[in-house]
Amino acid sequence: AYATDKSSPDAQAALIQTTQADSRTTSFLGVDGDPAITRLASSSSGRLAVSADATGVVRSWHPACASCQPVTLSRGPAVNALAVAPDGSLVAVARGTSIAVTSPSGQLMRGWPATGMHIIDGAVDALAVDADASQIAVGTSHDEVYVWTRGRAGYQEAAIGTGAVVSAAVFL
Description:
By secondary structure, this protein is mainly beta. The chain has one helix and twelve strands; from the N terminus they run αββββββββββββ.
């Protein structure tokens, strides 16, 4: 919701609630001149949250650990999309036409390309990770969907054919 509409009262209320619940996030919400969060994602288990700020820094957070500091996973250009595995074991970060996969501590993950995954046309606009963190789905600005499977070379590709941006991805 925050990535879609930063002015949404619901998104602002959620950010205020998060800040009040965890003081470590205050400086990353644009307070005191720090860069504001532009993307948020979390595991459905609640074990891990991931944020990207306006400078392209991606951090992982462990909400249940009040004394833990966030881990910087990567730095780079602006982040288009973030996704976290339901159990929090894998983080996917999209910048432009590239997708990188790491552990919540920033380590490379076995079975995924070490140089990341890349698409040919359109920027990545949506990411999803399946339940066992073995597949990643990507939606692009050129109405295409790509799916990578851990341990397999290459990807599966499908054109949606609507001519529109694929703005959401989810595994059921």
